[in-house]
Amino acid sequence: MNDRAIELLEQYEIEVLRTGKGRGAFLCDTDKGSLTLQEYTGRPEHLALQQKLLLTLQENSPVKTEMLYPTKEGELFVTDFEGTRYVLKSRPEGRECAVFDKGECLEAVRVMARLHGAMKLEKEELTDIPAFDPGAEYEKHNREMKRAAKYLKQKGQKHSFEKNLLKQCDFFLEQGNKTACEWEQYKHSRKETGKEEMVIFCHGDYQYHNVIYTGEEWFVCNFEKCLRDDQIRDLVLYLRKVLEKANWSPSLGRDILNTYQKEHLLSEESLRDLTFRLAYPEKFWKILNFYFNSSKSWIPGKLQEKLDKVLEQEKAKQEFLRIVLNI
User: Fold this and answer.
1) CB atoms within 10 A of CB 155
2) What percentage of the chain reaches a pLDDT higher than 90?
3) Which pLDDT score is estimated for 128?
4) 93-125 as b/e, with b when 16 or more CB fall inside 10 Å?
């Protein structure tokens, strides 16, 4: 094991038995079980919130989740001589959810719903943590698409990818503007509910890569992106990831939604939120924004492949929205 990892692990109350190297991480078998010393690029103060949420889940949720291990001094991260931060957390021995296995995909949804039932913190425990605002994100993404489209229109000599991308800008920007406008109208029409004593959180990156089957039970990891938002955020991401691989199958989408609701009933407001988030052209925005913010001297072929995939699935996605969500 390299000297950097040894020095970092010495700051924890653990006995290291065996080690290995992973992608951006050191894998350790210890007297506390299998652990990962993983690079952390987020804000240090966010770790305190993440730990509070994980401790709440450990106490109140039937779902097994990762845990963060503090140092001997009680810190949630360590720093190497280059200033890189690392966190030590539990690591399950198993495999990720098989995305092409319908049974496993539905089981991962059940796990999500059970997890969501316990992802609440009392307001008095929190400092001022603002809730995520979908409307602000729609407006930001729309501005970014407009800026990139303007750049493409004014650009002289264009690569074939740039020509193809420009052809689609108006169509997807219209979708983005429509979603943002309808969201604002809906937001102003909603009735304010009573003061809530609990604050709802979501995982923030709930996809099959982060749902591990150990052979006996399911385990959820990588909570680094947890945030205060409607828990529909996790369901939307999961639906996108699974349905993109199933060409937006209406029957699979219905099964996923029904499976979730059997465990954790969605409010009318959350269902409306789900329709807006799925309707927004997220995938096209990502491609366009990545192109605009990267070097234009060389355009990777992968970008054209991603654009082709989005265009190929657009009709199926619109059919899904119409059939399943009545859009």
Assistant:
1) 13
2) 81
3) 77
4) eeebbebeebebbbbbbbbbbbbbebbbbeeee
